Amino acid sequence: MEAEKDTKLLNLNSGLLIYIVATLIVAKVISVFLISKPRKHLPPVVKAWPPVVGGLIRFLKGPILMLREEYPKLGSVFTLNLFHKNITFLIGPEVSAHFFKASESDLSQQEVYQFNVPTFGPGVVFDVDYSVRQEQFRFFTEALRVTKLKGYVDQMVVEAEEYFSKWGDSGEVDLKYELEHLIILTASRCLLGREVRDQLFDDVSALFHDLDNGMLPISVLFPYLPIPAHRRRDKARKKLAEIFARIISTRKSTGKSGNDMLQCFIDSKYKDGRPTTEAEVTGLLIAALFAGQHTSSITSTWTGAYLLRHKEYLSAVVDEQKQLLEKHGDKVDHDILAEMDVLYRSIKEALRLHPPLIMLLRSSHSDFSVKSREGKEFDIPKGHIVATSPAFANRLSHIYKNPDIYDPNRFAVGREEDKVAGAFSYISFGGGRHGCLGEPFAYLQIKAIWSHLLRNFELELISPFPEIDWNAMVVGVKGNVMVRYKRKKLSVN
Ligand code: HEM
């Protein structure tokens, strides 16, 4: 009787067990097929050794070198584990639309470009919410409208004429140094205003020098590290703020204005009617100078180096100048610079090969997916840093024929290699939502300089063709670029 009871209990227990197991299996099947989230397909990951820090070491050894090695193996979308962060690279126009077009709430600049805050100062650009930043970028857009640019060009031309009038009849110069210097003078006049250009140039450029030297690779990770370079940066910023506060209040009290970016920022108003403060005006001017100065001077030096190296392209730009001399005489203004198409393509090609901003970054705040050029769908989780690289993407061989060769004609009508693969094939100026606001200003400035040189000098590159200075924050030209010049007016015949 007892045994029969035990057997019944056992049967009951095993029946219960089978029931529970069956329920669990059904629940699992339902969860897998019906209610579970689809599995994430993460991009392939760069192999790096030793674990944990291997990725960081490869990145620090040279991001472009790493991209050159990994792109052929992993394709257009891949991730690098960078110590505590993942960076996902989107390389090429086929995969980078989201990078350029996403809203700030999905892919933001604020965190990744935070290191600029101690240089630009409080209350501007990456120190403020996106809504305020958008308004401040509207001030930039207004300050760089064609009507304003026309006035700036006249000042650019005067600066170039004055600067090169100090060269002798013949001689040898470091073109890199000369163009850097001229571009600071021009930027001072057009952006910072005549008070700085005419009276305070030496003081202000020394202070900018300290600001510049306070932005080091280490500053990207630790912008407030108490090192001498950062202390000098902070002191210089404070002094600049004092200088500009004085200039602004004098302009306001005397009613004297200027045809410069300073005046545009003084006159700018937020949507609610609030005018800009003196501190904001100073911060925005510093941001403009940082965005435009090294980038433009590096580009004008590469343009010169390539033109002097390639006689056929030099002849083409000289011929264009002759035609314009014939048409307009000596005059150079905004509209005449706009006619310099051959020179434009020569600058654009130098900038394709050598974009000074080699890596563009965003921080991802929401998951997104991307189809790689190779046809695979990948999910990029929020929290990743997302990156693209002008220096690498501008030389993709499926976009550009012989990508490492200097060939300005690739942009001419009929070829237009930067357009056939669609938007974001040429990204030296970024693109989309955050595309460069100073692009027209930069071209005008470089054209004003080079049209003057081509019309007034014969030039010859006498040092070896320059190498790339990968160690600079804004990647530029390594060493001197020595040029022999002879004063000779270009004649129409
Ligand atoms: C050859 C010269 C220049 C190059 C190669 C260049 C390159 C760039 C690039 C790549 C970006 C996009 C950054 C990103 O997406 O993260 C950018 C943005 C910007 N640039 Fe330039 N730039 C040049 C000259 C200038 C000049 C002369 C100015 C102003 C006077 C300027 C003002 C700006 C501003 C305000 C932005 C931010 C736009 C935004 O985020 O909405 N740039 N530039």
UniProtKB/TrEMBL annotation:
For this chain, one GO molecular function annotation is:
sterol 14-demethylase activity
Q: Could you tell me where this protein is found in the cell?
A: Membrane
Q: Where, by residue number, does the polypeptide cross the bilayer?
A: 16-35
- InterPro entries attached to this UniProt entry: CYP450_sterol_14alpha_dmase (IPR050529), Cyt_P450 (IPR001128), Cyt_P450_CS (IPR017972), Cyt_P450_E_grp-IV (IPR002403), Cyt_P450_sf (IPR036396)
Which PROSITE patterns does this chain map to? Answer: CYTOCHROME_P450
Keyword hit for Ribonucleoprotein: no
Protein name (database record): sterol 14alpha-demethylase
* Bilayer topology annotation: Single-pass membrane protein
Cofactor section: heme
| The entry's keywords | Heme, Iron, Lipid biosynthesis, Lipid metabolism, Membrane, Metal-binding, Methyltransferase, Monooxygenase, Oxidoreductase, Steroid biosynthesis, Steroid metabolism, Sterol biosynthesis, Sterol metabolism, Transferase, Transmembrane, Transmembrane helix
UniProt record similarity statement: Belongs to the cytochrome P450 family.
A Gene Ontology biological process term: methylation
Provide the catalytic activity annotation. a 14alpha-methyl steroid + 3 reduced [NADPH--hemoprotein reductase] + 3 O2 = a Delta(14) steroid + formate + 3 oxidized [NADPH--hemoprotein reductase] + 4 H2O + 4 H(+)
The EC number(s) attached to this protein equal 1.14.14.154
Cellular component terms per the entry's GO annotation: membrane
Origin superkingdom: Eukaryota
